[in-house]
Each structure stands twice: as C-alpha cells, then as structure tokens.
Specification:
The complex is a heterodimer of chains A (769) and B (325).
Chain A (H helix, E strand, L loop, with lengths): L1 E2 L11 E2 L14 H5 L15 E7 L5 E6 L1 H5 L3 E5 L22 E2 L5 E7 L2 H10 L1 E6 L6 H4 L26 E5 L3 H6 L3 E8 L12 E5 L6 E5 L4 H12 L6 E5 L14 H12 L3 E4 L2 H7 L5 E10 L5 E13 L5 H11 L7 E9 L13 H19 L3 H8 L21 H12 L1 H4 L8 E2 L3 E13 L5 E8 L5 E4 L9 H13 L6 E4 L17 H28 L6 E4 L2 E4 L2 E7 H9 L6 E8 L8 E13 L5 E11 L6 H20 L32 E5 L21 H13 L10 H7 L4
Parallel strand pairs in A: 3-14, 12-13, 16-17, 21-22, 28-29
Antiparallel strand pairs in A: 1-2, 3-7, 4-6, 4-8, 5-7, 9-17, 10-15, 11-12, 11-14, 15-16, 18-19, 19-27, 20-21, 20-26, 23-24, 24-25, 27-28
Helix pairs in contact in A: 9-10, 10-18, 14-15, 17-18
Chain B lengths: L4 E4 L3 H11 L3 E4 L5 H6 L9 E4 L9 E4 L2 E5 L4 H6 L1 H6 L1 H8 L4 H6 L2 H5 L26 H4 L21 H7 L3 E6 L2 E6 H4 E2 L2 E2 L6 E8 L5 E9 L9 E12 L2 E10 L6 E2 L1 H7 L6 H12 L9 H18 L2
Parallel strand pairs in B: 1-3, 2-3
Antiparallel strand pairs in B: 4-5, 5-10, 6-7, 6-10, 8-9, 11-12, 12-13, 13-14
Helix pairs in contact in B: 11-12, 12-13
The chains are: A alpha+beta (769), B alpha+beta (325).
Chain lengths: 769, 325
C-alpha cells in the first residue's frame, strides 16, 4: 500500500491498491453474536426496579383534548402518568412546527397523548383504559391536494406561532429555476412529454419496534438504551427538550432490527425520560407493531407534474416540474428537496424549473425513509424518460446512455454544489443491459409474446443517483493497546448495514493490523467523540474516512517511534499483519505490540490516533450512480406482477466488503420492489385512521416473494475518500419503482402513473374492472 | 390485554362445563394465533373473562382414517395437516389449504378448528380499541360500505361485507366435510357449509368443535386449492380470493363438482352455479371459463373491489382446469 500524495489541507490521504483487508468479504463483526442469539437489543435489557411504560394514542385525526388521569394514577402498581401538563417547558421537537413531546392538541390518529409507567406491562395497559380523554374533534384533511385549497382545515392553524398559510410548511413553496423558462423550452421542442405521477407513502415496517430503556431515576443523569441512527444527535435533542446538560446524558445505541430512516420521528426516548423522572425509576417503553406503524415515520407520498422536452436526436431541452409532498402532521421539506437531485443532476437538462409544495395533512409524520425523495422522483422521471424515448423512437437504454450527465458536469439542484466528480452510468447501464438480456427481451410496448394464455412479459430500466456526503464533521479515535490490538471509537451507529465491519476494515488496512485485532466502539454518546448520525448513506464515505484517517494518525505516530529503532526514516516503513517493516528490507521488522510495550515505561501507555474533519459538499459531492433493470411477468387475468429477473448495478467506488455491499443492495432492492408493487398505508376516509398498520394487509415483501436482485457493482474510485468508497445503502432502492413501472408498460402497453402497481390498478389499466 | 382467568381443560366435558359456567364470557383457546391478537388490540367491546385451554386435552389433536372417513381432531395444527402422509396422499386438497396458511410459525400453532372459526380480518372490525363498533360486533353499520373496501367481499352479505379469511373452510366445504360439536346439551354434527351465519357461526357459547370429519373422496375425484393473497405476496396473507375445487370425472365427463370460495363473501361461498355449469361437460378452457363466469354472475362488488370479481373468475377457471388434469 502506498499513498499518492501527502495529506492536503482537508487531511484526507488516498491509499492506493493493492490492499490486504479492503476488498475482502470478511465476517461481519456482529455475525457471531447475532446468529447465536447473544446480541442484545434494547428489548432484551432489564434493570433492577424497572417499570414498564405504555403510551395512549389519539383516536382522532384532529382534535383538542383534555385529560383526566386521576383514576389511572390511583391504580395500584402505577408509578407515573404523564400528559402534556408534564411537558415543561414546552419546547418544540422540530423548531418550525408545533410538535411537542405531548400536547393538548392532536393532529393524526395514533399521535401520542399520554403515557403510563407501572410495575408490569399489564397494569400499565389497564391504566391506559382508566385515562379519561375528552376530545373536541376538529375538521381534518388527508389528501394533500385538498389541503392546498383555500377552504381546507388548517393542520397547524391554531397553535403554531408561525404563519403556515394553506398548510404549507413554513407558509411557502420551495423553488428552483435555472437556464430560463423550462416550460416554454419543453413546449417548443420536437417532442414534449407531460405526465402526472403519484406515489404511495411507505412505512418502515422494520423487524424491531420503537422503544427504549431509560434510566432518569434521579432526575440528574440520564442513561438511554435504544436503537437509533445517532446516539449523539439523540443526546442533543434530549438536552434541548428536557434541559439536561450533555455531560449528564448517556445514550447507548443497541443492536437494531432495521432502521431505514425510522428513528428520528419516534417520541419514545422523550416520553420514557418524562416517565422515568416522574416515577423515579427506570422505565422500559416498547411500542406494539400497530403503534409503531401508526405513530412512527413514513415516506412522503408525492404527486409530480412534469413536462419534458427533447430534440429529435434525443438532446433534452427543458424539464418543468411541480411536486406536492404530503409531510403529514409534522414532517419537513428534506425529501421533497432531495427530488431535485434525481430530477436535475442525473440527466443533461439545460433548463429546469421546480416548485415544491411541502404540505401538512392530518396523517402521521412523514420523515426520512431509505431513498429520501429519490424513489418517488425516479418513479415519475423514470417513466417520463421512457415515454420520451418511445416518442423519439430511440431504445430506452440508448437514450439514457445519451442523456446522462458525466464527470465535470454541473449539478443544478444546488447553487453551491460542485460538479460531478465521477461518471458511473455508462458502465452500469452497459453491464446491466447485458446481464438482463435487454437486446433480446425489450420489445415494442405490449407487443411481446403471451405465456400460459394470460401472461405478458416486459423489461424496464431506470437510472439513479444518490449522495453519500451530506456534509458535517466526522470524528474518530483509535487506541493501539499494549498488545498491539486496536480499539476504534467512532460514534456512527451501526444500522445493521455492517458499518462496524467496514470501519474496522478501513482502520486495519491503514494500520497494517489484522482485521480480527480491531474492535469497534460506535454505539455510545459518552465513549465516542461527538459526531453526526448515520444517515443519508454517509457511513462509509464519512465515518469510514474518519476511521481510516484516525488510523493514519496512529500509524504515523507508530512509524515515528519505530524509525529510530529500525534505523530508517518513517517514510521508509510499512506495516502488515501487526508488524512494521522496512519497505526496502522487509526482514527488518518490529511488531506493533513490541513497539507499544517498548515505550510504555517512558512514554505513552498506548498510542492514540485522532481525526476530526469535514469534507465540504461544495467541492466533494460524492454521488453514487447506477441503473436497475427489471423484468416482469404480468398475469393479465389477475393483475399479479411477478419479477422473474432483476439486475441492479451501481458504481460503489470501492467495495470495502463485497458481501456487505451485496447485502445492502439486496435489502434496498426489497424496499424498492415493495414500494413499486404492493406497499401502501391506507387511511379510512371517514376518520383518518390508518387501516393496515400490520404485516398482513400492508404488503411489505418477505423473503418468500421474488425480492432477489442480481446485485452487481463497478468500482470507479471516489476522489477524497481514502479508499474511494461510496455509500450504497439507499441508492439501490431508488430506481426500482421507475424500472418496474417501465417493465409493466413494456409488458402490457398501458401506463400506470399511480404507485404502487397493485393488482387492482393493473386490472383497471387493462380495462377489466 | 385485559386480565382473564385461565383454565387448562383436561377433557372435553370439563371444557364445556367451564364455557357453560361463564355463559358467553369465556373463550376457547388452542393455538391462540387469532384470539390473542383480538384480545391484545382490544378489538371487541368486551374481553373474555376466562380462557379455556383445550390443547392439552388428550387425543383431541388426533388424525385418523377409518371406514371411509378422515377424522381430524379439533386441535390438530395446520402443520400436522399439511405434513400428514394420509392427508397428502388421499386428501391433498386439505394439505394444500393448510400449507397456504400464514407462515410456518403460525401453522405450527394454529389449529383446524381455530382456522374455521377465526374472527373477521376486516380492517374496520380489527381496528385497535374497537373504534369501529360494526354490525358484526353488535352495532348497526358495516363501515366498509362507505369506507375503504378494496379487500372486502364481493358476494354481498347480511349487513357485513367481510371477506371470509379461512383457508381451511372452502377446502372442507369442497370435500363435504362436517364438524363434530359437543356442548352442554350433548353432541351434534353439522356440515361445515352449514356452520356459518352472516355474522359468525351457529355454535352456542358452550359448544366446541371436537373434530372435523371428511368423507374419503371417490377414486376418480381430483381437487385443488388456489389462493390469491391480499396484496399478492407469497406468504402470510389471508385470501383475497381463494378457490377450492373438487371434481369427479368419469368417462371424460364431470360427474360431480364442489367448488367453494374463500375471501369472497361474508362466509365461505359455495359456487353452485359454477358446479352446475361444469357437471356433465368435459373440462376444457371454454367450459371452465363458462363455469367461472357462472360463479361470479351474481357477484355484487363494493365501490373499490370490482377487480376481485376478475380474480375470482380467473381462479375458478384455473382451479377447474387444474383439478381436471
């Protein structure tokens, strides 16, 4: 291993191949614990005198309320009941919204309104029935298009200090405009395609349910065990909401049963803290599956109105767009804004106009969900591009090969964003087309053969783009122990995606120690240095970089100590398998353990390497690019769509651990297919109640469904990452719905613009209902 | 979940007398896969004061065959049925239906009697905290009619438009099976087909099913169970539409047919019009299609579930063709 250049000002060193640890499918750090059942989840943990918490959820979509808790408090075994009266001071969870831990106004069915801590879960449950809630129902609105009309009920009208006219977040639309007037550019083109596309929302439906174990018994020091995206960010929110200083908050991120963006919306850490303080005892709070689905986060459902123009040769002229995003009761604009990247940074469209309507409704809060706006945008744009290709008479793959952006191209989605640092679509499209057998399988829409009397096949393609550097400061510390083994402290939680494993590989590679000799502590807000959360597919790019660079700091220190011993300069040294050696004379060595021991008496007892650094998003945008190809078989009598073949190819930069990469792509593919085909939260129009918060009518796919993806990757190293890595966690779920919809169109020759493409819609499109 | 007394019955008589003593305030539990979810979510206005556990009653899960009749004890699990060699060789329709239920863990716990007596899976009925006090619970309204009814019944109903969720019921009906019932006033037998009422079944609160008996099909009979799950997945879900078809064929012609649909009506629907249409014909794509059209001729879909008629028609035709080959 060598370095190409000394550290630039941003302190990133690039390590070139060959590697001994990077690129190996080494066993995951959590594998043995998980398969033997020894891994502790928050629900496994118990503390002496621990109470059990339960939460009362609203039965109304919009209401003010009053609560009488006297009977519940009188029940034997009940230790605390909390309501909005216990939320003092009343600090909003998200700054721009009237979203409090508990409030006297509810804005969706399932919103938390009170909680109980009792000696056992059954007493807690019985106590919930004794809480008397008087609801004063208010008009509610479920449909974001209705919410935008002037007579619609105001979701936040009465209580928010902000003017949020017309149910828009912040009271206004968000806009982007570059290159001129896109609508007239599109309208004056050889080909103009226009379409309205709507997507479903999607619930995380992770295996774990929301909850935590909380000890704030003394009202002074808080310890919280939970599954979370970020121990530090949760500590930060707890501090702000509850007025506890950060030195007295200890958040421990336990193993997770899937996150997918779900934790930031959950109120359980705050509610549990209120309960524990009031009861003076530790509290375990665990939602049920139904409560998790009703009160947890979900994907923003969106409605796109797009107009795209192209010249005869396929050159794009303009894309005009309006996007309505249903943010639920307390959601933000994030995923709406992220549709910009998918709409404008991926294909060469010289003029772009975009108006976004982040719209409140009386539904559960929409928040982060794997893909963060891009799956919705690509469901729309992917189909629109497919239609443009058809009208132009160009093969869809050839069209995408022509119109995608390339290295050095601007990213119009953000005025401060630098140009694309790499280009991955050509290789991914080419490889994917070959693997799916595009040339043989693609046919004129609806004109393919019929199988078994009623079945039609088709193929579809969609490309995708995702960021893996959202900015922020990342930190890591490594300690080389006296025996030469290493502990890496890096506070980015492992979401189950394998971050501990990948970070350990980065550190081991740089330090020249064995992978098995690196342990990782990354779950603890007190042990790890302050750092942002694991989200936005940044784990490998940012936390992996921090791990590598802290290791590099330790390596430099070790080489400085070893050089005089081996009578060479530090630059003459390298390390492998725990042994430092002279590059020009590999028989001249000193083991790292001997080095640390040698200086322990007079100098450091162990060696500490550190890194703190940010990689500016303005320059180093780190975009992952790829393509998905889906082959479907549509049963035209039942509307059932099966997926006999599916290929996903992404340019991951460098696969630190190929098995981890493939697993992430498979998992992302399952989310993508669920979004495309079956997953949909359904609300009762009369009450606003979420009707299918369960595993038997919601449509989340299982391993028994055809979720398998032929997951492939290419490796064009990302500049400014020590090993050239990108994040793959979300990207591979982004283009699935677009590719799936195009494949269905190819099979049956009818467009379906409303996701998911469930059997009822397929049969309706075929004119059979 | 509300508190309750729990009794381990050691014999059927003890179970019946406990049920009698509680006079409607007790529930029978065996697998519990349905009952516990109803109790935990407080789906009903009241919760049972007592549970009478019958799964420890000796012999109640036995599966045996004699004198042209298969007897399946009430607490035989769906896994027991799906893997039983006799059932697989001579009553494969039952094995297919049992295998299609839920997922392995549910099949290992769920019993045949529980499956055919399970509560509604209508999402209004099942909503947590009994927020929709519907006609099936004693109220006056079926909330699905004006609400979201995309998964509901297509054959109308006496006020309730649930889609009956049992997989075993249509299979048993297509085989002419009966249930043996024991209560305070003695024993009785009832065809499975006649067990259901518009809002439940005809068992009294102090009665339990002790066994399901199935006549051995004639040698020239073939049967098949086809199931389309709620959202089109391959596991866990209840039938959006399912079809159990049993055909007796002699000399190339159908001499007898029994066809029953799950997920289609308030209770399992016997498709007698389809049976009449196919009997006397030789099965072909055309005759199967004609029978399938007859099956759905009287369907009265709700505002959002017309597509289910199409799926029902397709499945009936396919089941007839599959049973004839």
């Amino acid at each position: 291993m060598s370095t190409t250049y000394p550290p630039p000002p941003n302190q990133v060193v690039i390590f070139d191949p060959p590697y001994s640890v990077i690129g190996q499918s080494l066993p995951r750090k959590d594998a043995v614990e998980k398969v033997t059942g020894r891994a502790d989840f928050y629900s496994d943990l118990r503390l002496p005198s621990m109470l059990y918490g339960r939460v009362l959820h609203s039965l109304y979509a919009h209401a003010t309320l009053d609560i009488d808790t006297s009977q519940a408090e009188a029940l034997e075994g009940v230790r605390a009941v909390v309501t909005y009266r216990d939320v003092t001071p009343k600090v909003p969870i998200s700054v721009a919204q009237s979203n409090y831990i508990l409030d006297s106004k509810v804005k969706f069915v399932g919103e938390e309104i009170a909680a109980v801590a009792a000696d056992d879960p059954y007493i807690a449950e019985d106590a919930l029935d004794l809480i008397k809630v008087t609801y004063n129902p208010l008009p509610f609105v479920l449909d974001p298009q209705v919410a935008l009309t002037s007579t619609a009920p105001q979701v936040h009208g009465e209580t928010t200090p902000f003017t949020e006219a017309g149910n828009l977040v912040g009271g206004k639309t968000v806009t982007l405009r570059y290159g001129g007037d896109a609508k007239s550019a599109a309208a004056g083109s050889d080909v103009t395609v226009q379409g309205t596309y709507s997507t479903s929302s999607q619930c995380h439906m992770r295996a774990v349910v929301g909850g935590c174990l909380c000890d704030f018994s003394d009202g002074v020091s808080l310890t919280l065990w939970e599954c979370t995206h970020g121990a530090h960010s949760d500590a930060s929110t707890l501090s702000r909401l509850l007025g506890i200083s950060l030195n007295r908050i200890h958040v421990i991120a336990t193993y997770v049963g899937g996150m997918f963006g779900s934790s930031p919306v959950g109120k359980y850490p705050y509610i549990a803290t209120l309960l524990s303080k009031k009861a003076g005892m530790p509290v375990k709070l665990m939602y049920t599956r139904t409560e998790e689905a009703m009160a947890g986060g979900r994907r923003h459902d969106m409605i796109f109105n797009l107009t795209l123009g192209a010249k005869k040769d396929g050159t794009l002229t303009g894309l005009d767009s309006t996007v309505i995003a249903d943010v639920g009761a307390y959601g933000g604009t994030g995923p709406l804004n992220s549709t910009l990247m998918a709409l404008f940074d991926m294909v060469k469209v010289p003029t772009g106009n975009w108006v976004g309507y982040p719209t409140y409704t009386n539904k559960s809060t929409a928040g982060s969900y794997r893909g963060y706006g891009r799956p919705q945008a690509l469901f729309a744009l992917g189909q629109l591009l497919d239609r443009a290709a058809e009208q132009l008479g160009i093969d869809p793959v050839d069209f995408l090969l022509k119109i995608h952006r390339t290295q050095g191209d601007p990213q119009p989605s953000g005025p401060t964003l630098g140009p694309l640092t790499t280009e991955g679509w050509t290789a991914c499209l080419t490889k994917g087309a070959q693997l799916i057998g595009w040339k043989d399988k693609w046919h004129q829409p609806g004109r393919g053969s019929t199988y078994d009397g009623t079945k039609k096949r088709g193929v579809g393609v969609c490309i995708g783009i995702h960021g893996c550097n959202g900015g922020g400061v990342y930190t890591a510390i490594v300690e080389v122990k006296p025996d030469g083994t290493v502990v890496l402290f890096e506070g980015n939680a492992d979401m189950g995606q394998g971050l501990r494993t990948s970070m350990a590989q980065c550190a081991a590679e740089v330090m020249g120690v064995r992978y098995d000799d690196v342990s990782v502590v990354n779950n603890d807000s007190q042990l790890c240095q302050w750092v942002g959360s694991t989200y936005a597919s940044q784990g490998m790019y940012n936390a992996g970089r921090a791990a590598a660079m802290a290791a590099y700091d330790a390596r430099q220190q070790m080489f400085a100590l070893a050089a005089p011993v081996l009578e060479v300069k530090p630059a003459d040294l390298d390390a492998k398998n725990g042994v430092i050696f002279v590059k020009s004379n590999p028989s001249k060595t000193i083991a790292i353990k001997d080095l640390v021991t040698r200086f322990a008496a007079s100098g450091p007892t162990s060696i500490i390497g550190r890194y703190t650094g940010a990689v500016a998003v303005t320059k180093q945008v780190a975009r992952i690019m790829g393509a998905e190809f889906v082959e479907v078989e549509v049963d035209t009598d039942t509307g059932l769509v099966t997926v006999p073949n599916r290929v996903s190819v992404f340019d991951v930069g460098r696969a630190t651990n190929p098995n981890v990469v493939i697993n992430q792509m498979q998992g992302a593919g399952a989310h993508g297919l669920g979004f495309a085909r079956s997953e949909k939260p359904i609300y009762d129009p009369g009450t606003g109640r979420f009707l299918n918060p369960n595993y038997y009518t919601y449509g989340v796919l299982t391993s028994a469904d055809d979720v398998y993806v032929d997951a492939e990757y290419t490796e064009t190293p990302e500049p400014f990452h020590p090993f050239g890595c990108r994040g793959i966690g979300e990207a591979a779920n982004d283009p699935t719905a677009g590719a799936f919809a195009n494949a269905v169109y190819n099979a049956i020759g009818v467009r379906i613009n409303d996701g998911p493409l469930s059997p009822d819609k397929i049969l309706a499109a075929l004119g059979k209902t | 979940m509300k508190n309750f007394e729990h009794f381990d019955a050691t014999n059927v008589q003890e179970a019946v007398s406990l049920l009698s003593k509680y006079a409607g305030d007790a529930a029978v539990i065996a697998g519990g896969t349905d009952l516990l979810t109803v109790m935990k979510e407080k789906v009903l206005p009241t919760s049972p004061k007592a549970l009478v556990n019958i799964k420890n009653i000796p012999g109640l899960s036995a599966i045996s065959e004699q004198a042209g009749t298969l007897s399946i004890g009430a607490t035989a699990t769906l896994s027991d049925i799906a893997t039983n060699p006799t059932i697989n060789s001579k009553y494969p329709l039952l094995a297919q239906a049992a295998q299609s239920v839920g997922a392995p863990a549910l099949r290992n716990m769920g019993t045949i009697a529980g499956n055919i007596r399970q509560a509604s899976r209508c999402w209004y009925y099942r909503a947590k905290d009994n927020v929709f006090y519907c006609i099936r619970k004693g109220g006056t309204v079926c909330y699905a009619v004006a609400g979201d009814n995309r998964y509901h019944g297509i054959y109308g109903g006496a006020g309730c438009y649930q889609a009956h969720p049992s997989d075993m019921a249509p299979a048993l009906i297509a085989m002419g099976a009966s249930v043996s019932i024991t209560g305070s006033s003695g024993n009785r037998t009832l065809l499975v087909e006649q067990m259901y009422t518009a809002l439940g079944d005809s068992l009294k609160p102090d009665e339990i099913i002790t066994a399901v008996t199935v006549p051995t099909p004639a040698a020239n009979t073939k049967a098949v169970y086809l199931k389309f799950r709620t959202t089109g997945r391959n596991a866990i879900e209840f039938p959006l539409i399912s079809v159990a078809a049993s055909l007796a064929i002699q000399g190339g012609k159908v001499t007898d047919a029994k066809i029953a649909l799950g997920g289609a009506g308030t209770f399992p629907v016997r498709a007698t019009a389809a049976e009449s249409a196919i009997v006397g014909t030789s099965v072909s794509t055309d005759t199967a299609a004609a029978a399938a059209s007859a099956a759905v001729k009287d369907a009265v879909p709700l505002s959002m579930n017309k597509y289910k008629v199409n799926i029902a028609r397709a499945l009936v035709a396919r089941a007839i063709l599959a049973a004839a080959t």
